[in-house]
Amino acid sequence: MPKRIIVFGGTGFLGSRICKYAAARSWTTVSLSRSGAPAWSTISSSPDPPPWSSSVSWEKGDILQPSTYAHLLKDADCVVHTMGILLEADYKGVLQGRESPIAGLRNAFQSRKAGSRGNPLEREAGEGVEVGGDGVTYELMNRDSAITLARESSNASVPSFVYISAAAGTPILPARYINTKREAESTIASSFPKLRSIFVRPGFLYDSSRAFTMPIAFFGAAGNMVNSMLGGRLTPIVGAAVEKPLKPDLVAEAVVEAIEDEGVKGVVATGRIEELATKAWRRGML
Prior knowledge:
Layout: E1 4-8, H1 15-24, E2 28-33, E3 56-60, H2 70-73, E4 78-81, H3 89-95, H4 101-108, H5 138-155, E5 160-164, H6 175-191, E6 196-200, H7 213-229, H8 235-238, H9 248-260, E7 266-268, H10 270-285
Parallel strand pairs: 1-2, 1-4, 2-3, 4-5, 5-6, 6-7
Helix pairs in contact: 1-9, 3-4, 5-6, 9-10
C-alpha cells in the first residue's frame, strides 16, 4: 500500500536518495530542509534535477522549529531524520585553517557541550528549540533535534520513525559524535513507545559523485577485511574505521524497505542493512 513519508534532510547525500527510492514506490514523499529544493551538484554527479525529483514535494522548514513543519506530519506513515552532523564548527575550523589547531581541537574534544536550552522532552507541543550557548553541536543536531522530531511525530500519531545513526565512532572524531547518537536512540526508544522506531547504523558512505569518498572507502574496505580475519578485534579500538563502507543508494533502499516491512524495528546494523537492500532489489525485479 502506498505510504506518505516525510524526510527531514531530504536534500542531503543520503536523504535525497531515500526520497528517490520512496518516490519509486509511488509513495507520497515530502522532503523538508532549510533550502527547499536541493543543490543537485552537491549531492549527485549532475547539476540538473533527475526525473524522479518531480515526484517529491521539496518543502522549506527548520527542524528546530516544529511550527514550520507540524502541518506536514498529519497523516504521515513515517518520519525520517537524516540531519545529524559529522563535524562541528570548531573541528571544521581547524581542518580549514580558520582556527588555531590547539584551541579548536580543545573545544571540539570537550567531553560535553550544550545542546538546546532546556530538556527537549519538557517542551510544550509545537514549541521551538532554542540553540544553546555552544551553537550547532553534536548535542543539538545529533541528539536534541532527533528527540524533538520524534516527540512531534508521536504527538501527531505517526506510526513509524527512522533515525539515521552511525555504526560507531572513530579515533579522529570526538567521542561525543557517537555518544549523542546513542543517547538519541535510547531516549527515543524509551520515551515514545508508540513509535515503531528504527535506528539505522551505517558505516562510511561513499559514491563516485563525491570523489574524495572513494579512497577513504577503499582503505575502509581493506580495514574491514583485516578486522574480519581478526574476528572483529579491531572494532573496539578504531570503531567505524573498520566498518564496511556502504553506498548511499544501498542504505536508502534499505531504509525504504525497513519502512515497508512492519516487522523491522530497533537497531539496523550493516548486515541487516544489506539484507534489506537485497530484499528491496528483489522486490523491484518482480
